[in-house]
Design goal:
- The complex is a heterodimer of chains A (661) and B (258).
- Chain A is α/β, with parallel strands linked by helices.
- Chain A has two domains: 5-236, 3-Layer(aba) Sandwich (Rossmann fold); 264-553, pyruvate-formate lyase- activating enzyme, CATH 3.80.30.
- In chain A, β13 (311-315), α10 (325-333) and β14 (340-342) form a beta-alpha-beta unit.
- Chain B has two domains: 2-111, Alpha-Beta Plaits (2-Layer Sandwich), CATH 3.30.70.580; 114-239, no CATH class.
- In chain B, the strands form two sheets. In chain B, strands 1, 2, 3, 4, 5, 8, 9, 10 and 11 form a nine-stranded mixed β-sheet that branches. Chain B has a two-stranded antiparallel ribbon with strand order 6-7.
- Chain B has 258 residues and is an alpha+beta fold.
- In chain B, 22% of the residues lie in helices and 31% in strands.
- Chain B has helices at 18-31, 75-87, 109-112, 127-139, 208-215, 253-256, and strands at residues 2-9, 48-50, 59-68, 95-101, 115-123, 144-149, 152-157, 162-167, 193-200, 220-233, 236-238.
- In chain B, β2 (48-50) and β3 form a beta hairpin.
- The chains are: A alpha/beta (661), B alpha+beta (258).
């Protein structure tokens, strides 16, 4: 393997922001390749600015490089200007550490966090000089492996990715590495590619699509079944029992050029059981696994010292729910006056705003809340049980603490949504502006509206997504209403991009032909408005003889075989179906972290449990449960430090009655 | 108290912008744990001041930075600062000297520096053609180029800014003019066309790319390195902070030769 740097260097003077192609970050490793080490190129298929902060990629990068039998380098999708230069001068995609050609690695490992990056995955594989289709790859080509949340429906990419990984990567990455390192040491001889894929298929959590047969009946999917007896019929996700055992990244990458989330990030817990029905992350990452406050404090202190950052984000799906959040942030503030602590995913209540006010002496940015829906009825449907009082108290707290801007996130196109629900969005925003005006003149509230895309392994996986014209109509309702409302600024996502996200979210293997054609016609960076063109997708769908209506807008029935039915996130399908029925009846479901288990399957199926330091909801913790729920007599949590004994002895608790609000 | 740091920007790091480099220094100053003064306001920033900006893709072994401190630090500490900074700066950015400078007087580095010396490695023509282009430019009384300034197109005479311009026959291909493989593993080959230029920086600067453009459309940058910045005074000129005498342990193979 030899570096492409001398060929790349002259090209870099001609492209925008060349610093994103040089590596050299603080925290970057200097991997030394060797014949006994499997060589991984970890790829985030979007720009460096978007991909570098990705914590999942950084965690695997460190775990692999700590091993004696692995090396890992990184790369990101080159922007279109560099891509053109690379193709013109026949320079392949390269790694950032040693600037080695991507095609010389043993594994191209992709992180799939967003459906609209799928065409970039194909483009990166092609720029590596590797055939984009699985069936055209040979022994000399790297294995293409993908992980990340999108792999819970991998079928649209099944023709392009050799193996998918479901769930937490910390443990399984090493198991995969052993298989790959064996393959490399054995010389990757003729015929060995199919053998290594067969071996990978038996690693728990790994799905090798080429080992399965897909049967259709007309447009309907009938079954996805293993071709061989040693290949599992059902692939279960991987879950690490304790986040505390994995204090990664230890050396977060500090980029030389500005990126999104340019700060220290410390993951305080993984998983969320608030049970918001639209939220795929909250369903597939169960159960809740907290770090100890002590570990959080030490990761923050050492991370700040090492990186020179003056800002740290405590990340999770709902950080205000972290046990002892006040003590942790107090400890961080005591480290240094000039440190800013960011809490992404603020919970909507006054308590949370109180913490935020304590944290950010400098009111740099506005505060963002996500009520998600405009009326109480709608929020019961989606199980995000924020009362209006909670929101108004939060907004009042924000403006009275000196913030000048508040941003509210909403979804539209939700199941059972009426125009009254839609217009509830602007109604809430108007009331928030009025609250702000009590504190300061010229208050503005920004409302950001996204079209809802149903995701696999959520109760809404059966719901027919709104059409582009229906979403357009709802957005224009909101625009008209916002125009009449002083201080309400409306932003919205393009419903056309929402349509394509929906196509890939729940598409089956046949959608792969559409992705390939769009990519061949130059459709990369589809997350970027300036590069997204719906007509490319419409044409490709027509050429493949597929219907967007059928894939995206159609309600599914209970008996329908879904393209991800051979995969498992632990959740029982009948639990999800019951939750879907409850949603349609606007019946809420409490957070099982603090109330008895209702056996969704995520804990009981894998013999694991919540790891939370406090068995009671935090102060102000009613939000998300809709009421001040009492703590039941069965509390399926293990206190930190006492979790080891519990795994084998715990019988699945009885399902509890679903609470209604 | 104000301290001045001299540092390099060599190798891959040359593709980092001036703005990015400011952020890199900001983090480095925090990591070096100095009593840096902060600005007031909503969003306090450390008080430090760069000299002349360096274009993306150009290298330098004479960049400067002034840092204001809230507390004075002793001489012994100052002597350790260059190493402390280098340890927390990326490869290619090495701090080569640090000294206390008067903070009074109110004259910034950017105002004080009067000229820069550049090594301009060019592609696009032969040595003879380069010599002819240099002669033509030096013989001209005025050389006008068009620039965009504040949204308007203006014609500027750049000839007064070109204090000297010669074909550099001593250049070896290493960033250090006299290195020729001594400090690095570089095997000197034919360096091609390399010019040495001293360019005035007051009242505004002439960018190396503009000078190269004025030599003729055939010339393209291969490697552009700022070798020195100068402050004129009555008895001659001096650098804002000279390199200490002796070897240059900070110079690394990956940043010396290209």
């Amino acid at each position: 393997m030899s570096t492409v740097w001398p060929r790349l260097e002259p090209l870099l003077s001609r492209v925008e922001r060349p610093a994103r192609y040089i590596g050299c970050e603080d925290g970057a490793q200097s991997p030394v390749h060797a014949p006994h080490k499997a060589a991984w190129l970890l790829i985030y298929p979007d720009t460096y600015e978007v991909g570098l902060p990705n914590q999942g990629l950084q965690i695997l990068y460190e775990i692999l490089n700590e091993r004696d039998d692995a090396v890992a380098e990184r790369t990101y999708a080159p922007w279109t200007d560099l891509e053109a230069e690379l193709r013109t001068h026949r320079v392949p995609l390269f790694s950032l550490e040693n600037h080695l050609p991507a095609g010389t690695f043993d594994v191209l490992g992709f992180n799939l966090a967003a459906e609209l990056t799928y065409t970039n995955l194909l483009n990166c594989v092609d720029l590596a000089g590797v055939p984009v289709r699985v069936d055209e790859r040979r022994e000399e080509h790297p294995l293409v492996i993908a992980g990340g949340h999108c792999t819970y429906n991998p079928e649209p990419l099944a023709d392009f990715v050799d193996a998918f990984v479901l769930g937490d990567g910390e443990e399984v990455v090493s198991e995969i590495n052993e298989v790959v390192a064996d393959w490399k040491r054995s010389g990757r001889t003729d015929g060995s590619r199919v053998q290594v894929l067969r071996r990978l298929a038996s690693v728990p959590g790994v799905y090798v699509p080429s080992m399965y047969t897909v049967t259709y009946d007309g447009p309907r999917l009938v079954a996805i079944e293993p071709r061989y007896p040693d290949v599992p019929a059902r692939i279960e996700k991987r879950t690490i029992a304790s986040l505390e055992d994995w204090p990664y990244p230890r050396q977060q990458l500090v980029p030389l050029t500005e990126v999104v989330h340019d700060r220290l990030n410390v993951e305080v817990f993984r998983g969320c059981t608030r049970g918001c029905r639209f939220c795929q992350a909250g369903m597939i990452t169960r159960p809740v696994r907290e770090r100890s406050a002590e570990q959080v404090r030490s990761m923050v202190a050492s991370g700040l010292r090492r990186s020179g950052y003056d800002e740290v984000a405590l990340t999770s799906l709902s950080t205000a729910d972290f046990s002892g959040i006040e003590a942790v942030v107090g400890g961080i503030m005591a480290l240094d006056d000039n440190i800013t602590v960011a809490l992404p995913s603020l919970r909507v209540d006054a308590f949370t705003v109180g913490i935020a006010a304590q944290l950010q002496q400098a009111r740099r940015a506005g505060l963002t809340f996500a009520p998600e829906a405009g009326t109480w009825r709608m929020r019961q449907v989606i199980n995000k049980l924020i009362r209006e009082e909670d929101l108004y108290a939060a907004v009042d707290g924000a403006f009275s603490s000196g913030w000048r801007r508040v941003k509210l996130y909403f979804l539209t196109g939700l199941p059972t949504e009426t125009d009254e629900d839609t217009l509830g969005i602007t109604e809430l925003a108007r009331n928030c502006v009025a609250i702000g005006q009590k504190h300061q003149k010229g208050t503005s509230v920004t409302v950001s509206v996204g079209g809802f895309v149903p995701k696999p392994f959520t109760p809404f996986q059966w719901f027919g997504q709104n059409t582009v014209s229906e979403l357009d109509r709802k957005i224009s309702l909101l625009r008209n209403d916002a125009r009449r409302s002083r201080g309400v600024q409306l932003r919205w996502h393009d419903p056309k991009a929402t349509l394509i996200e929906g196509l890939m979210s729940r598409g089956d293997r046949r959608v792969g032909a559409v992705i390939e054609e769009v990519w061949r016609n130059g459709g990369t960076f589809q997350e970027w408005t300036e590069h997204f063109r719906l007509d490319r997708w419409v044409d490709a769908l027509a050429n493949a003889g597929l219907s967007a209506d059928w894939y995206v807008h159609r309600h599914r029935t209970e008996d329908e075989v879904l393209p991800w039915d051979h995969l498992s996130a632990g959740l029982h399908k009948d639990f999800l179906w019951q939750d879907w029925r409850d949603a349609l009846d606007a019946v809420g479901l409490p957070d099982c972290r603090w109330t008895p288990c209702y056996d969704c399957g995520a804990c009981t199926g894998y013999g694991i449990e919540h790891v939370v330091a406090s068995a009671v909801p935090p102060a102000g913790g009613s939000q998300g449960t809709g009421q001040d729920l009492s703590v039941g007599h069965v509390v399926p949590v293990s206190l930190l430090g006492r979790r080891a004994a519990s795994a084998e002895t715990s019988a699945p608790p009885e399902p509890v009655e679903v609470g209604s609000a | 108290m104000r301290v001045r740091a001299r540092f390099t920007k060599l190798g891959k790091i040359r593709f980092v912008s001036h703005r990015d480099l400011a952020r890199i220094w900001e983090r480095a100053l925090r990591r070096a744990d100095l009593p840096v003064a902060y600005s007031g306001g909503f969003s306090p920033r450390p008080r430090f001041h760069f000299g002349l900006a360096l274009s993306v893709a150009h290298e330098s072994w004479a960049e400067y930075l002034d840092v204001d401190l809230v507390d004075d630090i002793d001489e012994l500490t100052i002597a350790t600062l260059a190493d402390r900074f280098s340890a927390v700066l990326p490869t290619g950015v090495d701090c080569t000297a640090v000294a206390v400078v008067p903070s009074a007087g109110g004259i910034s580095l950017q105002e004080a520096v009067t000229s820069s010396t550049w090594s301009l490695g060019l592609d696009g023509g032969s040595l003879d053609e380069a010599a002819a282009a240099v002669d033509a430019l030096l013989e001209a009384h005025s050389v006008f180029i068009t620039r965009e300034r504040k949204g308007k197109t203006v014609n500027d005479d750049i000839r007064p800014y070109v204090r000297s311009l010669t074909l550099d026959s001593s250049y070896s291909g290493c960033v250090l003019p006299d290195c020729a493989g001594a400090a690095c593993d570089h095997v000197p080959g034919d360096p091609g066309v390399v010019l040495r230029a001293e360019i005035g920086t007051q009242p505004r600067t002439l960018r190396p790319a503009e000078l190269i453009g004025a030599l003729g459309p055939m010339w393209r940058e291969r490697r552009v390195v700022r070798l020195a910045q100068w402050i004129d005074h009555e008895d001659g000129r001096q650098e804002p902070l000279a390199l200490p005498a002796g070897p240059l342990p900070w110079l690394r193979t990956e940043t010396c030769a290209t």
